[in-house]
């Protein structure tokens, strides 16, 4: 066993996140027990290999991981602190300030409690969507409170590391402001955008490309979970949405002026620059998103290859890129609706694209140029 987490670990709430924690810890040889008000969820989590059902006569857990919906998390954490007086208790709820405030108000001693939040998820929920590598390389926020003991903090950091994540220390309020900007507001924007597609006719949707897919990917998320997250982080999310509404109003006003004009020359002064600034500000923002290894985003070169839609073709392409001695930095697949071919956009280090293109053409691949 290589894990620093020795267990036993009790996972309370065995949906996507809880069962993913259990899967990885079980694979590391840790004794994991599963508990959930849904007996089906427990049985399913057990079946996928996340651990075994908790029993009333179990010995005491060393660590309890609460992975229940955010609105019930504080109550469940409190019950676990009281039920297991020797255990460290953490929770993984997406909002931290609300949970901590509720726990403080309850008066329960918090030395054995350390809130946390893995920045990893999927659009699907429940134990059947669990995967052991969900947290690999992802940030895991450790939102220690003033009351948290050093030992408890160490145990939760060790858990994050054992799950392959990268622990990041932040206090609860800073965490909530950060996730409002990088996770919660993007969810609202994506959902609202996707909702606008409901009335769009099929012919128009057939023209959709990767741009629309990129903007709406997370709109497939679970409505119940996100209702709970947004309600619990309303104080941090609302001002950002108000600022966004201001930006939208500026763009709408500019478009209204452009609409009234007969051509670019007659558009009122300042209108076009408003539009250009909106897009340029987006360029500036997107350049700030860290790249795949967490550092500043790198400018990769991209080679786009047509891949026949038949078994083994993508694997053959990847093998041949390796044989060409070029390191694949990233891979994006695009599917053209109704066509028997896909497009693989291969990101490579600057300076490598021309060589890779030549190698692939020589091997008979068709490139999109
Ligand atoms: N889904 C995601 O992408 C991420 C979710 N989180 C957080 O993880 C937590 C769990 O989310 P998911 O696993 O996605 O949800 P899920 O819906 O897959 O699973 C939640 C589980 O909690 C159980 N549950 C409900 N009430 C409970 C209670 N009172 N006590 C114990 N268990 C209870 C449910 O029966 C269900 O099995 C949430 O707090 C969420 O904010 C954190 C990071 C990412
Ligand atoms: O937001 C993201 O980028 C995700 O990867 C999914 C996610 C959803 C909810 C969370 O609390 C944390 C992460």
UniProtKB/TrEMBL annotation:
Residues 302-369 form the ACT domain. One of its GO terms (molecular function) is NAD+ binding. Keywords: Amino-acid biosynthesis, Aromatic amino acid biosynthesis, NAD, Oxidoreductase, Tyrosine biosynthesis. Pathway: Amino-acid biosynthesis; L-tyrosine biosynthesis; (4-hydroxyphenyl)pyruvate from prephenate (NAD(+) route): step 1/1. Pfam families: PDH_C, PDH_N. Its EC number is 1.3.1.12. SUPFAM superfamilies: 6-phosphogluconate dehydrogenase C-terminal domain-like, ACT-like, NAD(P)-binding Rossmann-fold domains. Belongs to the prephenate/arogenate dehydrogenase family. This is Prephenate dehydrogenase.
């Amino acid at each position: 066993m290589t894990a620093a987490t020795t267990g036993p670990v009790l996972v309370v709430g065995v949906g996507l996140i809880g069962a993913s924690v259990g899967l990885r810890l079980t694979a590391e040889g840790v004794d994991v027990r599963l508990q959930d008000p849904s007996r089906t969820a427990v049985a399913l989590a057990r079946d996928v290999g996340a651990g075994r059902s908790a029993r009333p006569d179990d010995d005491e857990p060393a660590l309890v991981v609460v992975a229940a919906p955010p609105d019930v998390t504080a109550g469940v954490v409190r019950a676990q602190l009281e039920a297991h007086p020797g255990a460290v208790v953490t929770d993984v709820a997406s909002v931290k300030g609300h949970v901590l405030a509720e726990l403080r108000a309850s008066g329960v001693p918090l030395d054995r409690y350390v809130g946390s939040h893995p920045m990893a998820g999927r659009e699907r929920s429940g134990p059947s969507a669990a995967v052991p590598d969900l947290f690999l390389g992802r940030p895991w926020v450790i939102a220690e409170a003033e009351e948290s003991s050093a030992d408890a903090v160490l145990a939760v950091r060790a858990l994050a590391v054992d799950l392959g994540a990268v622990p990041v220390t932040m206090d609860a309020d800073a965490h909530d402001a950060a996730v409002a900007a990088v996770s919660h507001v993007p969810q609202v924007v994506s959902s609202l955008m996707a909702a606008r597609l409901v009335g769009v006719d099929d012919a128009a949707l057939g023209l959709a490309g990767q741009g629309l897919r990129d903007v709406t990917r997370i709109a497939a998320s679970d409505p119940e979970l996100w209702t709970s997250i947004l309600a619990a982080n309303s104080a941090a999310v609302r001002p950002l949405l108000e600022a966004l509404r201001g930006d939208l109003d500026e763009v709408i006003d500019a478009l209204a002026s452009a609409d009234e004009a007969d051509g670019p020359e007659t558009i009122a002064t300042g209108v076009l620059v408003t539009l250009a600034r909106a897009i340029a500000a987006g360029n500036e923002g997107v350049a700030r998103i860290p790249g795949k290894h967490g550092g500043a985003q790198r400018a990769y070169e991209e080679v786009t290859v047509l891949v026949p839609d038949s078994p083994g073709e993508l694997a053959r392409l990847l093998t041949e890129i390796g044989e060409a001695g070029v390191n694949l930095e990233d891979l994006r697949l695009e599917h053209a609706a109704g066509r028997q071919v896909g497009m693989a956009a291969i990101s490579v280090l600057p300076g490598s694209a021309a060589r890779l293109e030549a190698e692939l053409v020589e091997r008979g691949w068709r490139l999109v140029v």
